[in-house]
Amino acid sequence: MMTRRNALRAIASTPLLARAVAPRDVPAPALAPGDPMSSERRALVDAFTKKIAGLPARFEKRTHKGDWTMPYRVFRPSGRNAPLVLYLHGSGGLGDDNEKQLGLGNIFGTLVWALPENQSRFPCCIVVPQTDRGWAKYQESDGAARVVPGFGDGARLALEIVRASVREFAIDERRIYVAGQSMGGAGVWNLMAHRPRVFAAAAICCGSATPDDVAPAARMPLWNFHGDADRTVPVAVSRTRIAALRKAGGQPIYTEYAGVDHNVWEWAFTEPALPRWLFAQRRGA
User: Fold this and answer.
1) Which parts of the chain are beta strand (E)?
2) Relative orientation angle of helices 183-194 and 4-12, to the nearest 10 degrees
3) d(Cα 57, Cα 73) in Å, to the nearest integer?
4) pLDDT of 147-179, one tens digit each?
5) What is the pLDDT at residue 142?
6) Which residues pair with 177 in a beta bridge?
7) Residue 212: DSSP 8-state
8) What average pLDDT score do residues 71-76 get?
9) 131, 59, 128, 145: which is closest to 95 by C-alpha?
10) CB-CB contact of 180 with 109 (8 Å)
11) Which of 124, 217, 227, 276 has its CA 20 to 30 A from that of 175?
12) Nearest to residue 252, comparing CAs of 173, 188, 194, 156?
């Protein structure tokens, strides 16, 4: 019998929309120079992995008690009225050890905002919850889980943690951002669809599909990343979602890296323009 965790991993790799719609060009911030596989571009990734030494220890371990207990880590802001970044991990972070969501491939999406050079220019609070049951809405049948429409239980608890952090750290509520990858990207799509007025902007890497209507989030600034050689979440998923947002009147930024597989987060979160773009976004009144 398939376990819940294996079922969630399988769901993350299954596109719900099979028809690929080629994205049209939309003005985007300048990308780092060099082709994705060039030594010039890989040097940014290598430099990042060296600069993050010691940063995970600066994230406090906490737990949130809602319908169940959700572990999370928080990087305290240096002052009041700071922005907040919520990061949703991929399936490799599933569990309750309060560790894996800051490890493995999740190091890029969690630690980039905590780099000294980014904290110096964009001091912020970083909230990194950990789920053992996914972010989107799931329904179990005969021991297997499938994603269904509706606000996800994991996403709801993550939002409860954000609201508690806003009160504790006096966060600027017009500058709350959300990012995620793969399964976590599905969680971001879920939050965008069901709570579009909470966040000032979103960044998604190779987000897996959900059946949620993204039209309510058309006005939310979004930078979406995908590798065209992704063998886990087909690039068609992002192309179709971006097309749906544009059809609804949105203007998302879409970056597709040639020859990049599922680990697109290594390129996305080392784009120098990403922090500048994200923290420039502000939610309207």
Assistant:
1) 60-65, 69-75, 84-88, 125-129, 138-141, 144-147, 176-181, 201-205, 222-227, 253-257
2) 80
3) 10
4) 999 999 999 999 999 999 999 999 999 999 999
5) 75
6) 85, 201
7) -
8) 98
9) 131
10) yes
11) 227
12) 188
User: Using CA atoms, how far apart are residues 107 and 114, in angstroms rounded to an integer?
Assistant: 11
Encoded tokens for 39: 């030594």
* Alpha helix (H) residue ranges in 171-268: 183-194, 235-247, 265-268
Question: What is the b/e burial string over 169-202, where b = at least 16 CB atoms within 10 angstroms of the residue's CB?
Answer: bebbeebbbbbbbbbbbbbbbbbbbbbbebbbbb
HSE value, Cβ hemisphere, 13 Å, CA-based, for 90: 25
φ, ψ (nearest 5 deg) of residue 200 = -85, -25
| Structure confidence at residue 25 (pLDDT) | 45
pLDDT tier for residue 144 given thresholds of 50, 70 and 90: confident
Running DSSP on this structure, what letter comes out for residue 33? S
> Which two structure tokens, joined as six digits, stand for 138?
């799931």
Q: How confident is the model at residue 17 (pLDDT cuts 50, 70, 90)?
A: very low
Residue 193 has what pLDDT? 96
In 3D, which of 158, 81, 75 has the Cα closest to residue 118? Answer: 75
DSSP single-letter state for residue 112: G
Taking only the tens place, the pLDDT of each residue in 113-134 is 999 999 999 999 999 999 999 9
Question: Residue 116 has which token pair?
Answer: 């000294």
Residue 260: how many CB atoms within 10 A of its CB? 22
- 214 and 192 in contact (C-beta within 8 Å)? yes
Joined tokens for residue 192:
């965008």
- The C-alpha atoms of residue 225 and residue 169 are separated, in whole angstroms, by 30
What are residue 155's phi and psi, to 5 degrees? -65, -40
Unique residue bearing structure tokens 């960044």: 203
> Among all chains, which residue has been given the structure tokens 């993350």?
12
The residue with greater pLDDT, 145 or 7, is 145
